[in-house]
Amino acid sequence: MEQMVENFIDQFGYLGVFLLIALENIFPPIPSELILTFSGFLTLHSDMNVVGVIIASTLGSVAGAIVLYYVGRLLSVERLQKLVNGKVGKILRFKASDLEKADDWFDTHGNKVVFFARFIPVIRSLISIPAGTTGMRLIPFLIFTTLGTLIWNTVLVILGQQAGSAWPKISAAFDSFSSIVLIVLVILFIILVLLFVKKRFSKSNK
User: Fold this and answer.
1) pLDDT tier at 92, thresholds 50, 70, 90
2) Helices (H) and strands (E) in the chain, counts
3) Distance, CA of 123 to CA of 129 (rounded, Å)
4) Which of 45, 65, 68, 182 stands 20 to 30 A from 28 (CA)?
5) Which residues touch 92 (CB under 8 Å, ≥6 apart)?
6) pTM tops 0.85
């Protein structure tokens, strides 16, 4: 994977950065840490510069986010409510009111969620789906997505440039950090799901 990413960026330059980062947003397993730090390193040995790499990567991030946003729009709250009102909802003990609460919560906090989610592994990609599903307006979505990804991309590109030939160490460090954060988030998610299911079962047994 690493060698393929490096060769692609080395061959296609800014376009390669744009395409890989766009794909990374749609398919989170592609590591943005590797793409961005290596791109930063390449600014020392190619015609690419830091500003150009940051612009290309941010445009790629936004492009990938837009794709998932519209995937979310296809999964509208109304369609999810139909699923919840059917067998799926009965099995999981979800109610239409749960979706309405989630929709209202995203309407209130959506801007902050989209912005800060851009710094969290995997979540920074997937957050675009609920943003679309809950009908978050496109312009605010684009603004906060751009701001969040601009900061994330800038930090990694500059670190890659400053690290020079030691950029793999920076990439590995961020990758390890991302893995730890992801594990913690998965554990928290499981705990929340278990608490939610327990609450639903306790209510139904009363």
Assistant:
1) very low
2) 10, 0
3) 10
4) 45
5) 197
6) no
